[in-house]
Amino acid sequence: MKCEISLQLNSCENSPNAAFGPVFIPDLLPIPGINSFPLNCFLCHEKTLPVVGPYHATASLLVRLASAMKFFDPMGNQIPHAQWVNIYRACYFCQANPWVEDFVAGQNSLLTTSSPRSSQDLITIMAWKTGHIDQWLSHTTQQIHYNPANWPANPAHRYANFLQGIQWLAQQMPTIRQQILANPQYLLNVPHHHLPGFGATYRLTVLFFITNGSEPIYDEFAHKAALAIDQDRMPWDTVTGRLSINSKTWVRYGAYKQLLRSINLNQSGGMFISRDDDRALWAYGHLFKG
């Protein structure tokens, strides 16, 4: 049985896509007897996002609800996995523009291309990871713009400057791709003088793109979310067990991958987890301490 009425979740007015109208999300598992409920945008804490029903359940989603893993909305109500994805994916887009996301990590994007990553590709990837893409202007012009506009000439974030590392990665890309096939942790072993500014998380970001997502991207919020699901934590609780990825990186990254598998998130083609699940994890992780 397919959901007869889609979920309508209005964009927060502070969202980059607020001017583009409501976000429509199909196939939501219903909560019987509930026609609507308010959902606050917890990323910017500004506006209530109305969720409109009624809804009709599918058998596959009911199976999810009966599974060991528990998923919660921001108010602490247990919900099925599909509804969890829908809610938190929409919250992700409170801070990300759909056009930019499609360009960088969509179905036909820098993430999925089979071509070697160029220096321009790597600049865009690092700008996406560090929040230096001008979301609104990029959407308006259908072309990537940066914030600040001259960021590609000096690609820096906080105390890290990526320029030298990007140049080295682009020059060595054919070799890097071959090395990763034989040894996935190759990038983590590259000496610092080749990749200044590239700590463990940024190196894993590059690995994510080079492997077309078969090695998952790492983010502290996604990690907290995965732990919360594994530990049956409700929103605003504290999770335990999150160790710094910068120490014993490959071992702890392996443990993170095992954690993602244990909570039964969806794979997508050759990707370790689907982009929808990954986006939902990132948003969900903002609800937890630890």
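[next item in queue]
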Amino acid sequence: MRPGLYLLSFGGAVAVLVWVDQSPSEIANQASVLVLLLGAGLLGLIKPDWAWLSGVGLGSSLAAAHALYLVTGHPLPYAMSPSGWAGPITPLALLVPAVICAYAGARRWPADSAQDSTPLRSFVLRLTGRCVEVGSE
């Protein structure tokens, strides 16, 4: 995948994550974590060499968004807990699962395999136009 297209996909994942986080629903936190983990894993899958960017970028995007809300005075649809500047710091805990999922998506596949070991990886590689031999990544 070309770097520009990857960065566009990354920006889209961040936008969806921040959009889901804006929901006042009771399950918005769980939905945000699901979007975070799926986004990091898929971005790691389609660009394994940049898995660190997927994990760190998506993992810190909610903290950055909350800090931006605090600076601009933009109200959240829910009460940020803890309040003040501790509120944007606590979502940084999402860095750990995001990086783990990104590297799980970027996992190197066995070189002795004749074809990709998962249908999802084959589908994503075909969708993004990456034609690589397994093990040559």
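[queue empty]
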